[in-house]
TrEMBL record:
Signal peptide: none annotated. Keywords: Oxidoreductase. Pfam families: Aldedh. GO terms for molecular function: oxidoreductase activity, acting on the aldehyde or oxo group of donors, NAD or NADP as acceptor. The keyword Oxidoreductase applies. Gene3D superfamilies: Aldehyde Dehydrogenase, Chain A, domain 1, Aldehyde Dehydrogenase, Chain A, domain 2. PANTHER family: ALDEHYDE DEHYDROGENASE-RELATED (PTHR43353:SF3), SUCCINATE-SEMIALDEHYDE DEHYDROGENASE, MITOCHONDRIAL (PTHR43353). Residues 6-396 form the Aldehyde dehydrogenase domain. This is Aldehyde dehydrogenase (NADP(+)). InterPro entries: Ald_DH/histidinol_DH, Ald_DH_C, Ald_DH_N, Aldehyde_DH_dom, Aldehyde_DH_Superfamily, ALDH_KGSADH.
Length: 465
């Protein structure tokens, strides 16, 4: 597709979304929930065929992909339930008060209004859950915004197949086709054109730091800048304190090995930095982690460029750290472990490179204050995991505070891979993890990204709905 043709395709898609926007903004809860549930039902009715297409394009395997379809249907229905519970119809009323200011005031009603057409950029590593009918699309539709989906080049046939099902549901329900439109095969330049299109009101993006940063800058360079909700990457530190390792180091090593290699390490929450305190328990744990990784084979990475990126990132880290484990290479890359000390990690930005794949860097610290300095050096991450910080002590309180300063989600048990779709979830963190750390791209609070508060003063009753 030429640049001119891509721009014409985008212009047509956005024009359709603009035409649909007023109707959808005023659509009742019943109309919106019927669409969301209809989309979930259509996806599941064609699950076998869609999973087969997805597996050929992504190499993720039927088990993982079937689970992803289940999650996608679950979150579509979940947003429908949230709408029925009033999630997008929040209203705050302050009745008029007599007297002079500041006590006296007019009647004020604070309501939420949809932003308008939203551009969503599909992610490579979740061909269902962060793609055409993924969380960004579901939350934008729930908020009352039409969606223009930028398909990912890693799963083009799947994107078209899912979009066609969605289009059929929209048409069958008598809704305007512009509610969901698809832009296929667009180059990076065309992606930038979509972000800067004057009729796009917001952008949701999940992908690389480089790509997301470039689009974020374009969104802010517009004559009228728009919100850019970008998830850009994360190294997700995991701190394993001696108390946890002494209690159950073998099981923890097995669990962590599975998390590092899950999906060939192509999860935005994959634990990329393992922080340990100097000591015998930590040394034993490192040996157990290598042994747990030894038999694990990974599947092919999503795209050749992603494999190239992984090899480049591990080369950068490997040039500044000690390689302590390399597993067996099969269809996918061999799992890898590197090691450095906390002082070097804090001083050297190369050691904080995200290795998007089955690799992790072990960082050894001398004490808890240095552990906190390691966390601070990371700056921003989607998750931080603290094994062994269970007791109410001054040290643990300080460590939890340090983790909360840099992470959107702090775990005390388990591993960060696996993100529950629920109301309390927070999937976003300080820069460079995301561009809007006060928002989430997973969970039902995600629809709040696409609503704008408006205060109505002395408004008639009909205007407050």
């Amino acid at each position: 597709m030429t640049q001119l043709n891509a721009q014409q395709t985008i212009d047509h898609a956005v024009a359709s979304a603009v035409q649909a926007a007023p109707l959808w903004a005023k659509a009742s809860v019943e109309v919106r929930t019927r669409l969301l549930r209809g989309l979930a039902q259509a996806l599941e009715a064609h699950q076998a065929d869609l999973v087969a297409i997805a597996d050929k394009e992504s190499h993720l395997g039927a088990g993982r992909l079937n689970g992803e379809v289940a999650r996608t249907g679950f979150q579509l229905r979940g947003f429908a339930e949230q709408l029925e519970n009033g999630a997008a119809q929040g209203k705050v009323v302050d009745e008029a008060a007599a007297g002079a200011p500041p006590v006296g005031r007019p009647q004020l009603t604070r309501v939420q209004r949809p932003l308008g057409p939203v551009a969503t950029f599909s992610a490579s590593n979740f061909p269902f859950a962060f793609s055409v009918l993924g969380g960004d699309t579901a939350s934008a539709l729930a908020a009352g915004c039409p969606v223009v989906v930028k398909a990912h080049s890693g799963h083009p046939k799947l994107s078209v197949a899912v979009y066609e099902l969605a289009r059929q549901v929209v048409v069958a329900q008598g809704l305007p086709e512009g509610l969901i439109t698809l832009v296929e095969g667009a180059s990076r330049g065309a992606g930038g054109y979509l972000v800067q299109h004057p009729d796009i009101a917001a952008v949701a993006f999940t992908g690389s730091y480089q790509g997301g940063t470039a689009l974020w800058k374009l969104a802010n360079e517009r004559p009228r800048p728009i919100p850019f909700f970008g998830e850009l990457g994360s190294i997700n530190p995991l701190v394993a304190l001696p108390a946890a390792l002494q209690a159950d180091s073998q099981n923890l090593a097995n669990t962590l090995a599975g998390s590092i290699t899950l999906g060939c390490g192509q999860f935005c929450t994959s634990p990329g930095v393992i922080v340990l305190l100097e000591g015998e328990a930590s040394e034993r744990f490192v040996e157990q982690l290598g042994a747990a990784l030894e038999p694990l084979l990974t599947h092919a990475m999503l795209t050749p460029s992603m494999r190239d990126g992984f090899e480049r990132a591990t080369s950068v880290v490997g040039a500044h750290a000690e390689a302590i484990f390399t597993g067996t290479e099969g269809v996918g890359p061999a799992p890898r472990l590197y090691r450095t000390d906390a002082t070097s990690f804090i001083a050297n930005a190369h050691l904080r490179e995200e290795m998007f794949g089955p690799a992790a860097l072990v960082v050894t610290a001398s004490d808890l204050r240095q552990v906190e300095q390691v966390l601070a050096a990371i700056g921003g991450t989607l998750t931080a995991t603290l094994w062994g910080a269970d007791d109410d002590t001054a040290d643990n309180r300080s460590l939890v505070h340090a983790a909360e300063q840099i992470a959107g989600r702090v775990l005390f048990k388990g591993v960060p891979t696996g993100v529950a779709v629920c109301s309390a979830q927070q999937h976003g963190g300080p820069w460079p993890a995301s561009t809007a750390p006060q928002t989430t791209s997973v969970g039902y609070a995600a629809l709040e990204r696409f609503l704008r508060p408006v205060a109505l003063q002395d408004a008639p009753t009909w205007a407050q709905k």
